[in-house]
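Late entry, written up from scratch paper. The run itself happened at the end of the previous shift, but nothing got recorded in the book at the time, so transcribing now.
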Amino acid sequence: MSINGALQIGQSAILASQTAIQVAGNNMANASTPGYHRQVARLSPSRPEYIGRGGFIGTGVQLQRILRTVDTALQGRTRAAISDQNAAEIDQRFLNSIESIRNELTDQDLSSRMSAFFNSFSELANSPNDEAVRTVVIQQGSGLATSIRELRTEHANVRLEIDRALGATVRTVDGLLGQVAEVNRQIVDSEQGGGSTANSLRDRRDELVAEVAQYLPISTVEQPNGSLDLLVGSTPIVLAGESRGVTLRTDASSDGTTVSLRVKSDGTTLLPEEGQIGALFRQRADTVDPAINDLDTLARQLAFQVNRIHSQGQGTRGFSTVTGVNRVADATANLASDAAAVPFDIRNGSFELHVTNTSTGIRSTVLVSVDPATTSLNQLAAQISSAMPAGTGTASVTPDGALKLDAAGGYELSFSNDTSGTLAALGVNALFGGSDASDIAINQAIVEDPRLLAAGRGHTPGSNAGALDIAGLENLAVDALGGRSLRGYWQSRTTDLAVRTQASNTKAESTRLVRESLDAQSQAMSGVSIDEESINMLSYQRQFQAAARYIATIDETLQTLLSMV
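Output as recorded:
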């Protein structure tokens, strides 16, 4: 080997050990840097030199490349675990929120308020003419209606919170995707035409992708040029250096507001199942909306079942004027049509309207037949007016679509035997107004005059038949509720929610443990060990010293040769 070749061996050893020392130092400097992956200097022997007679001699060492220690399969599992954990935490958060709002198993829950309301009718049945007891019934009904409205408002606020969270997270993800695309371009530009990798840029991209995984369940595909494509399911959201973006679309309809996640560039619908965004959509669709529907169903059946009995009963006095608390959208449309939008079903049947002379006590009864398929509210009002004895009263439709009956001076109105459900549907002689949990309320006319509270039936003084029937509603099976009572329906829905909430708590804990386990594995694979790097640095330092000593020896040899000339 020539002197020059020997010097090149020493030079290569010095340069390689210098680089390796720098890599070890960089690892130690970034030991606590989030997202940093340990780097390793890969050294290999230089190409040997042929020296004749089949012999080869080494020419030193060369740096092949500086690698990141990354297990791509473990990295993919970790990203999936990140999505799962974030989704489980969102599920836990909103299920616990709804459970807390309902606050069952306390003295102030809705079940207790319903029991207090029905119990007040039991008390009224014992003293049907006691106006103080009537006032208590009205107060209990008003408190129950207020609780239902407040519950619905709180449920709606949770949905609004979800919608706001969706808007904020989607905007965050859209920004992150733009950053991933930009880093993709930088990596391609840095690595183009070379065998090295832009390790710092790749670490930054991995950190961004892990952040995206908090919000969306993503899969990745690395291209030969170093760029990384991101997909949700089979739909790409980042292709090389281009972000296709995501956006939240809101559509309003008669059934309410719907939201969906779309690809910004072409409007493709994304259906994420995990990650914060997937869990927010799931909680909106599977928890909050059904919870609101449950409350609306309860309020609707409570109002209808109570009104069905109350509208056919009588208080201690009749009405001089009575206006239905429920409105129709179109008074000219048939009562069974969608255009009329009657809040409750009306069947083909009839009801009795009684007109009583207050001075003589003589009572006239008018049978009003109703066919909802052919009768509009205007026609019904005209039919009632023509059927009432001359000079005793009239019926009309208010400008906002309510049926109104007015008795002439000296007369009172009362009702009974409604086989059509018209009185309850239109809210005539009703205790509750409204058709769902958002608008249920006590009839203001009864609040102002408790004597109108219908505790009796058959125009029998001191009758308590109506009060007993309403009190029995608490445990009466209702077909519209699947054969369950009002209280039983609410308790079953609340129990289902409690079971789901407990399951979400368990899942949140299990996904946290899985995430911690995978993080530990990733740290063992890609994390920096100060002790290990210190040993490496000492080894490379000794290599450097040996190379320096080798060069000094060659230099001494060269000086000896020169002195001999």
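The longest helix spans residues 131-191.
(Scratch paper discarded after transcription.)
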